[in-house]
Design brief:
disordered C terminus, oxidoreductase, 293 residues, globular, pyrroline-5-carboxylate reductase activity, 5% strand, 2 domains, Rossmann fold, NADP-dependent oxidoreductase domain-containing protein 1
């Protein structure tokens, strides 16, 4: 219970002059960005855990270099001005397979790649829609907000609700990050495709049970070019992918994802199901029109 809720003089807006109140929407936008970023990072971690390629574990470190040498996924949560010194401290301790997930919105991917001398980096990017709706739960803590079905559906990669839209290149990066994890374990690409189909396409619409042939399955050429795929034997793993390039350039998966509404639907259901939300056909979350790249 918020004890300050009915005390107008103690609310943030009380001391803001009337002529400046047009900027109060930025407060909600900032909160929405924080909630979306936390939701997407949580979804990514759940996918990694479901791959069964890492064990849950918590350790306390007092030196960034020691932390980086231990962790499989490193989250960069700092001020832009602090990042160069942190990168100097940690870049020599990064393993090739370590995934760096950056929350530092002001530092673009090429700069991160240069600072860390590392390519296995994920960085979500957001843009603002025309409608800015206040749905982010101004009086809720972030943990509570991430348990609210309305807020969680608004964080869905294909949802324009709330006025904040995730650029879909992040979702491509998530897929290629999963491929890199499997490559590090020297898994045959045919086995990886089956695993990804089971992991990413495991949640279905009701209609899928009636027509399983309509359910998508991943193919080799969804991720690599036809020319490369011709020379890749069944036993060989996928190549190692530069995640920064994946998020900055067109890939085979870019074309596959943008041209397959069925795949988008399945990924939407997977995202919501990972937070315990079951969608019906009458509850579409996917936005109409082309997804933001």
């Amino acid at each position: 219970m918020d004890m300050l809720q009915d005390l107008e003089s103690l609310q943030f807006e009380y001391g803001v002059p009337e002529e400046d109140r047009i900027w109060l929407y930025l407060q909600g936008r900032s909160r929405g960005l924080m909630i979306e970023a936390c939701a997407h990072a949580t979804f990514f971690c759940k996918l990694l855990y479901n791959l069964e390629l890492q064990k849950l574990g918590i350790k306390c470190f007092y030196h960034n270099a020691d932390l980086v040498s231990w962790a499989d996924v490193i989250f960069l949560c700092c001020l832009p001005s602090q990042l160069p010194n942190i990168c100097v401290e940690i870049h020599t301790s990064l393993e090739k397979t370590s995934i760096v997930y950056s929350f530092v919105a002001a530092i673009p991917l090429p700069r991160l790649k240069l600072l860390l001398n590392h390519t296995n980096i994920l960085r979500p990017q957001y843009q603002y829609g025309e409608d800015s709706v206040s749905i982010w739960g101004a009086n809720k803590k972030v943990i509570a907000a991430l348990q609210d079905p309305t807020i969680l559906q608004a964080t869905c990669p294909y949802s324009p609700a709330g006025g904040i839209i995730l650029k879909i290149k992040w979702l491509e990066g998530v897929f290629y990050a999963a491929l890199n994890i499997c490559t590090a374990r020297n898994m045959a690409h045919s086995q990886v495709l089956q695993l990804l189909s089971e992991l990413f396409l495991s949640v279905h619409f009701e209609d899928c049970g009636k027509d399983t042939a309509s359910c998508p399955k991943f193919q080799l050429t969804d991720f690599v070019s036809k020319a490369y795929g011709k020379n890749l034997s069944q036993e060989r793993p996928f190549p190692w992918f530069d995640l920064t390039a994946v998020q900055l350039k067109e890939t085979p998966f870019s074309q596959h994802l943008s041209s397959s509404p069925v795949l988008q639907d399945h990924l939407t259901h997977l995202y919501c199901a990972s937070f315990g939300i079951s969608l019906t056909k009458e509850q579409p979350v996917v936005s109409t029109g082309s997804p933001s790249q």
